[in-house]
Amino acid sequence: MKANRRNFLKRTSAGVLGVGALTFPGLVHAAATEKKTNVLKSDMKLGVASYTLREFTREKALDMTLRCGLKRITFKSMHLPLDSGAHTIKSAVGECKEKGVDFYGAGVIYMKSKEEVDQAFEYAKMAELDMIVGVPTHDLLDYVEEKVKAYDIKLAIHNHGPGDKIFPSAESAYVKIKDRDKRMGLCVDIGHTQRIKRDPSQDVTEFFDRVFDIHLKDVTAAEHDGKTCIIGRGVIDFPAFLKTVSKLDYKGTLALEYEAEGDDPLPGMMESIGYVKGILATL
Q1: Spatial CA neighbour of 114 closest among 138, 133, 140
Q2: Residue 246: how many CA atoms within 13 Å on its side-chain side?
Q3: Comparing C-alpha atoms, which of 256, 271, 267 is closest to residue 70?
């Protein structure tokens, strides 16, 4: 579990991209800029899935996102309820713009009825979003496809790992949408992917033509009971994964979904993002 982290730290130079980079993510950015790395050329985008910040108000969640050096976010319903009216949604959009955070998607949104599908797409339309991260039931996929075409809003289906009966893996979603409208795709949660004993790098590569969004998290074990932990302290091979998405020239967002320490996630978020930036700066 700790070998990948130790090996990565050994490969980075003189502590600037090592321990110091974990503490001061800005140093990594400066080093990456100076070296003109492939990361900058491929415009790798980092963000936050706001479930990470579920115990905090929307304003606080945005401020904490910015403290991590991130400027992209998807909102879960606790930060912008699905039954919000137009005024509330426009106010939230304005708050994001004022703070300089790109509100690029919403979710995870569960869709168990046509009414919930309608609500999700109207919500996304009012918020001027390009994408919904969602989990529609299988019997609603035809109806969802109609909405995707009518609204021109992408749906990224999120996998939830072992125990989930709808979409446990990215593959289970891919086989359902691969012949549908190309705006129907995937939000690959690599933590849940690892928990179901699949290789995140392999899944992203195999289903890449439909990968719209990626949720970044590390887990303590490749088992049903694996728990979210700080990135680099778990079992996912992040150097290999980030090298894979860089080579694929992934244009979507790598959104941190840190589910541990719900009441105090910021230290874990910062260390996780620092570790990811440190790896990206070496590619």
Answers
A1: 140
A2: 18
A3: 256
Query: Residue 219 pairs with which residues in a beta bridge?
Result: 228
Q: What is the DSSP letter of 166?
A: S
Residues 242, 32, 267, 93, Cα dihedral to 10°: -80
Parts of the chain with a pLDDT under 70? 1-43
Vertex 198, ends 257 and 232: CA angle to 5°?
45
Asked if 23 and 267 touch (Cβ cutoff 8 Å), the reply is no
- Indicate the SS3 state at residue 112: coil
Give the per-residue pLDDT at 191.
98
Confidence (pLDDT) at 44: 85
What's the confidence (pLDDT) of residue 4?
58
Q: What is the pTM of this model?
A: 0.86
Residue 150 makes CB contacts below 8 A (sequence gap 6+) with: 121
